[in-house]
Amino acid sequence: MSTSSAPHALARRFLAKGPLTGRIRVPGDKSISHRSIMLGALAVGETRVTGLLEGEDVLSTAAAMRAMGATIERQGNGDWLVSGVGVGGLLQPAGALDMGNSGTSTRLLMGLVASHPITTCFVGDASLSKRPMGRVITPLSQVGAAFTTYPGGRLPLLETGTDTPVPISYRLPVASAQVKSAVLLAGLNTPGVTTVIEPVPTRDHSERMLRGFGAALTVDIDEDGARIIRLVGQPELKAQDIVVPGDPSSAAFFVVAALLVPGSDLVVENVGLNPTRAALFDVLRLMGGQIEEIDRREVGGEPVADLHVRASTLHGIEVDPAVVPSMVDEFPVLFVAAALAEGRTVTSGLEELRVKESDRISAMRAALHLAGARVEETADGLIIEGTGGKLLNGTGNAAVATHLDHRIAMSMAVAGLASQTGVTVDDTRPIATSFPVFEHLLSEVGAV
Ligand code: S3P
């Protein structure tokens, strides 16, 4: 039995009480929520954000922006108002910025402060303190920022921004929207044109939102298919009204659960379907999942639709590694779908999963194995022999180790719904980083 090393872990067993039925809305998109707070905090005037994700990660971003001078308040109706300091107006924070579990907050804010003459200390939890920051330190050092880190380029780290930032041209060595965004955000307070060359497209929320706030940003495709993103520095950003669509990465858990739990028939409303995010739903359809899009429309400059999901017989597939960046956070829950499918599912090209909130390849291999699935780990993925629709055994008296990783916890909760004896998750607390109402919604749809 594996147990959590965390002193106040909150273990829970997940077992389906019945099929998932009805209509739900998942909270706002995490990536868009972070960016709306950051750009609102740099704009002139008052930005209103409707549908902000009130998860711990986004609240870490809000606390940091407040510590650097922005005014950020929640209204009685649930909207958030952000009064910005203007590009270049960030102030020296009085203390360390606590990033909690959030890699997105850390890497994007490291970008923002790189071109401000202030010194910031970033600290985080045990999971975040293991994650590599060298990938943003390399380009931000070229901009002119200086760093002192814990050995291995990890948190805690001290960053001293520069008052003479250099506009760089940076080719991303790894497909990462966080690195791309860090460079672009550093470019905001840098005179001249900052360029990011992105050989493999990643989520483009930063580009969309920078434009929405009035920055001059262009995207061209070169002869090799790479995206060339150019941002003209030192714009005046104008406050916006932002409506945040539902997070496809959160919807993913309910979509997979509804596919797997017999008799389920569920509508998940208002799901963001930005093509750089939504590949999971295409892959599940290729596996035989019945997922119907209803009323495709635009919300806040992003495509959204309601997803109607019915319990389905899935079959294993070989997942094209080209789709990895557009479903990078969804592999843990895809592994669960594969564990119940008929035949073999092969995934590859998932090296980046090893440096998320946990090593998601090895964490999911161990967790699914404990729940009774047949799983083999490779250097860059998992190979899973599905049960052909038969429920997993469950974990018996043991608990799966989630390693402070919200997506492992929620994926294994879904596995529990598709098991005979239930799956015990060693610690559900990390779920609050991205999806605080996850367990509440599970009970609302009748699953638990
Ligand atoms: C994110 C980018 C992705 C993703 C993370 C959010 C973002 O990380 O895994 O959950 O908002 O930019 P990488 O850029 O490291 O792939």
From TrEMBL:
Primary residence: cytoplasm
Sequence positions that bind phosphoenolpyruvate: 30, 103, 131, 178, 360, 407
InterPro entries xref list: Enolpyruvate_Tfrase_dom, Enolpyruvate_Tfrase_sf, EPSP_synthase, EPSP_synthase_CS, RNA3'P_cycl/enolpyr_Trfase_a/b
A Pfam family of this chain: EPSP_synthase
Active site residues per record: 329
Keyword terms, alphabetized: Amino-acid biosynthesis, Aromatic amino acid biosynthesis, Cytoplasm, Transferase
Subcellular location: Cytoplasm
Swiss-Prot/TrEMBL catalytic activity: 3-phosphoshikimate + phosphoenolpyruvate = 5-O-(1-carboxyvinyl)-3-phosphoshikimate + phosphate
E.C. designation(s): 2.5.1.19
Cited Gene3D superfamilies: Enolpyruvate transferase domain
Gene Ontology BP annotations: amino acid biosynthetic process; aromatic amino acid family biosynthetic process; chorismate biosynthetic process
Residue sites binding 3-phosphoshikimate per the record: 30-31, 35, 176, 178, 329, 356
Gene Ontology MF terms: 3-phosphoshikimate 1-carboxyvinyltransferase activity
Domain Enolpyruvate transferase residue range list: 18-440
Cellular-component GO terms for this entry: cytoplasm
Pathway note: Metabolic intermediate biosynthesis; chorismate biosynthesis; chorismate from D-erythrose 4-phosphate and phosphoenolpyruvate: step 6/7
Enzyme class: transferase
Function per UniProt: Catalyzes the transfer of the enolpyruvyl moiety of phosphoenolpyruvate (PEP) to the 5-hydroxyl of shikimate-3-phosphate (S3P) to produce enolpyruvyl shikimate-3-phosphate and inorganic phosphate.
Subunit note: Monomer.
HAMAP family: EPSP_synth
The family this protein is said to belong to: Belongs to the EPSP synthase family.
Protein name: 3-phosphoshikimate 1-carboxyvinyltransferase
Organism the protein comes from: Novosphingobium nitrogenifigens DSM 19370
